[in-house]
Amino acid sequence: MGSGRRAPPSAPRVVFGKATIRGGLDLNIVRRYVRRKLARIRHCYEKELLENPELEGALTVDFEITPQGLVENVEASGLQESVGECVSETIRTIQFPIPNDGGAVHVTYPFTFTYASHH
Question: Residue 4 above 90 pLDDT?
Answer without folding.
Answer: no
